[in-house]
Each structure stands twice: as structure tokens, then as C-alpha cells.
Amino acid sequence: MNSGPLHPINEPMKIGFRVGTFPKLSETFILDQIEGMIARGHQVSILANDRAKPQEKAVSPEGLHDLSYVRSDNPLLSGLQDRLPYRLRRALTASRERKFCTANDVIICNFGWFGAQVLESANSLSPAPKILTIFHGDDMSRSLLANGGNLYSDLFDQRQMLLPVSDFWSERLQQFGAREEDIFVHRMGVKTENFKYAPKTRSNTDPFKLVTVCRFVEKKGLEYAIRGFAKAVSQAPDLTMRFELIGSGPLEASLKALVRDLGISELVSFSGALPHKEVAHALARSDALVLPSVVSEDGDMEGIPLSLMEAMASGVGVISTYHSGIPELIENGVSGLLAQEKNCDQIADHILTLARNPELAVTLTRNAREVIEEKFNSTKLNDQLEELCKRALTDSGVPPQSTE
């Protein structure tokens, strides 16, 4: 893994972000990166696949130089696009991506498949574009394995900059052929100034409030969170506990059915997907967040979930699993509690540990806040991302284009 010195460059850069749906509530990390680059004086443009649906839409960052979409927002035109043969649709997208590359100094691609796709589209350009590809979760697990590990071979061969969000993914990239010197671990983070650290004080009569914030998909392990909560309730009749699930997704109906079957409907609430500000309010009223991530049947895995970081920044206890890069965020018994994947008994024990030991909970949350401020602080990480963009340019001797 490369951690060498980064070369200084002072001119504003033209930075392009290639994204999927934009602006998307569940991808605040991309919004933070974009806002961070704009705040540092760079010209930022975005090429997105399509617009976010109203229920998924976040506020678009101010100060964008350009925002364009591959898919038309005109229903008639988008319908025509959908009916085109795949090769023609891909050719049209590739044309847009080539123009995007020539208009910018560097291209940041969140998710490996965009990095591979943009490189393929721009293979005729000279000089080759500078692409920084950030690898998160699905793009390093299910999607990579489905392609026999060859999905990113061109990125590896052309020595593009590879930015996994964890040491865990760094090792996997190397297993599939990436050179260690092309890899820079670039973690996701949160705006610590948006999350006031407030350790929880709870009287003996107050309920212990558990929360989760995520998409309702298999890898989030919500079935095991619910079963673990039910076990904790049955083992501690002297405690009053509540569990709020924030989010939505394909497993919502089955999770609600599980809650009914376990007889805990009066203790569990489903709040739906909420704007980021309301999520912060939900964390403020909660004692602990549980997110027991698992490897899904099709191989999908997490990176390092932002919801855990937000809870840790807020003084909320965290319960998760030994999964993917999560142990790089949470040290068991020091900054949170970790269970083995799918182990409902351990999850129940961890819930009761936090519920019965408020002093321990405060110690864990204080340590957790320090971890976030030091290693998962988006301000520091955006400084790093800016320097990585500069390095991508100066390593090749290509100066940034004029932004005037």
C-alpha cells in the first residue's frame, strides 16, 4: 500500500465526478467529496446516469460548474433510450464519457465499475485520462467475483490510482493483480461538525433505545438485529427497550413480518427513509445503533458503513460484526462491540451489556468519537483526496487545465 509523499501543485484543478444516480440520499459520501473539492477552490463537474427519485433525492451541492445526465429526464426520450440495443446505448454513453474526460484534469469514480467503464470509454484518448477509482463494497465483492476477478484488469495494467476504502479491500485488490504501489487507502468519513458528541444519560425508568439506519438489504444483517433484539427482550424482562429501524428496501415486508412473528411489534418501529437531518435527530435520541452486517448469499459485502461512523461521532454506542473493513473502524470492547456474523446470541449480549452498563457505554463512545475525529473525519479526508488528485497529475507531468 502506497503512503509516500504527495507532490504539491497550486493551480485549481478541473475535477470530474462520474456517478450513478445523483443527488442520492444514501450516497452522502459522494456529496461530501464534491462539496469538499468545491470548497477548496476547484472546478467540479458531474456526469451522472440519472436523476434521483423524489423519495431518494438529496440537496445538490452549490457551486457546481456543470451537471449533466446520460439518461434524459424527458419520458419520451428516456423511453427511446431504453429501447436502443445495448451496444448503441453503450456507445452513446462512451461518447459522453470521452468528452467528460477531455474537459477535466482528473476523474473521480466512486465504485470500481465506473472506473473500469470510463477507462474503456477513453482508451483512444491521448494522453490517457487520470482516473481515481474509489472501491467501496459491492464493487469489491459480488460484482468483482461475478466477473472472475477480471473486471479491473485494465485499471491495474494502466497503473491508474486505486483508492479502496479499507485495508481489507486493499488486500483483495492485490490478490486480483493490482500493484501495491498503485493503491492508496482512502477512507470514507463524516463531517464531525455536524454531529455533536453527546454521551447518553438515561434514568432507570427510561427505555433503552436501539436504532439502525440503512437500506433494507441482506448484507445489512437486519434479520439478526431483530432476532438479537427479541432475545435481549426475553432475557431482560426488567428492562424496557425499543428498536427503531430507519430506511427502506426490498426486505421491508419480510422484516415487518418477522417482527410480528416474534411478538415484538409494540417494541419495534419502522420510520422509513429519512433526510439526513432527521437521521441526526434520531441518533440524538438513541442509546445505541446496531448494524450486524453479513456476507449475502450472492457474495455482496459492506465497505465500512457510514451509519456506524455517524453514530460514533454522535456519542451513540455501536454494535456491529467482524465483517469486511468494520473492525478497522470499531475495536471490540474499546470503541464499540462486535459480534460474529449471524450470531444473534452475541448481538443480544451486546445489547444488554450497553443497556446495563451506562458507564462502559460512555467510555466506548468517548473512544469512538476520538477514532472518528482522527481517522474518519471528512475534512481531513477531503484534504487527502485533493492531494491524491494533485499527485495523479504531477506524477505524469501533466499540469491542470486553466479554469478561466
Helix content: 40-55%
Assign the CATH class of the largest domain.
Alpha Beta
Main beta-sheet annotation: 6 strands, parallel
| Residue-averaged pLDDT | 93
Strand tally: 12
Count of spatially separate domains = 2
As for the CATH topology of the largest domain, it is Rossmann fold
Instruction: Give me the secondary-structure category.
Output: alpha/beta
Strand order of the largest sheet: 3-2-1-4-5-6
Within CATH, the superfamily of the largest domain carries the name: Glycogen Phosphorylase B
Q: Strand percentage, roughly?
A: 15-25%
Radius of gyration: 22 Å
Molecular structure report:
The chain is of the alpha/beta class and 404 residues long. The protein folds into two domains: 193 residues, Rossmann fold, CATH 3.40.50.2000; 184 residues, Glycogen Phosphorylase B (Rossmann fold, 3-Layer(aba) Sandwich). 40% of the residues lie in helices and 16% in strands. It has 15 helices and twelve strands. The strands form two sheets. Strands 3-2-1-4-5-6 form a six-stranded parallel β-sheet. The protein has a six-stranded parallel β-sheet with strand order 9-8-7-10-11-12, with helices on both faces. Helix 3 crosses helix 4. The chain is globular and about 70 Å long.
Secondary structure: elements and pairs:
Layout: E1 14-22, H1 28-39, E2 43-51, E3 66-69, H2 75-83, H3 86-103, E4 106-110, H4 112-121, E5 130-135, H5 142-146, H6 153-157, E6 161-164, H7 167-175, E7 208-213, H8 222-235, E8 241-246, H9 252-261, E9 268-272, H10 276-284, E10 288-290, H11 306-314, E11 317-321, H12 326-329, E12 337-339, H13 344-356, H14 358-375, H15 378-394
Parallel strand pairs: 1-2, 1-4, 2-3, 4-5, 5-6, 7-8, 7-10, 8-9, 10-11, 11-12
Helix pairs in contact: 1-15, 3-4, 8-13, 11-14
